[in-house]
Design goal:
241 residues; disordered N terminus; nucleotide-binding; G protein activity; P-loop_NTPase; GTP-binding; GTP binding
Length: 241
Amino acid sequence: MRLTQSMCTIAECAPGSEGCPAARPRLVKIAVVGGSGVGKTALVVRFLTRRFIGDYERNAGNLYSRHIQIDGEVLAIQVQDTPGVQIHEHSLDCNEQLNRCIRWADALVIVFSITDYKSYELLSHLYHHVRQMHPGNAVPVVIVANKADLLHIKEVEPQHGLQLANMLGCAFYEVSVSENYNDVFNAFHVLCKEVSKQQTASTPERRRTSLIPRPKSPNMQDLKRRFKQALSAKVRTVTSV
């Protein structure tokens, strides 16, 4: 099945199929984190399949994989869904499974629901926890405010999420997973582009490093010098005879 997005090219495909190269595609790993019940799983499935499914079983932290074409480049997208996070005694209750997911990721989506103020309160804690898990690494982060269609029961004003995202230096998207695919796509598209840019920028450096010749072993150089000396001496002896 092939999916096409009007704003940018996005397609679900397998390597070697028509329009998708057989070469190994660039790998982009994204973790989706946030409080319980904010729609993380629905967000992931919506992005990868365009489908919306309203009810899910309790999140066990599934890993979703797809080959997707974005802006003409095939990417191997891996999206790690994670169980809901809570605040316990003014600090995040993060288990080792969540920490491994955060360290594994090239980029992160932090999700909250506009109908749940407690999920909004998690944002700053989660963002700083991500930075602690990636010290010295500017891993891209997008903040997503979900359930934008439920304005009649909202507990968080949209501008509050935007203001916090600006303060933290993150991109911000207000989406309705159930009603609008384009906004969901745009949030992930920004992350994929940023990760691809970072990977492209680091590739030449790795290539230059690999082209630097290794220093020759002093022992090998000494053996070569001795071999040449012995060969020269043998030639002189034969000449004199």
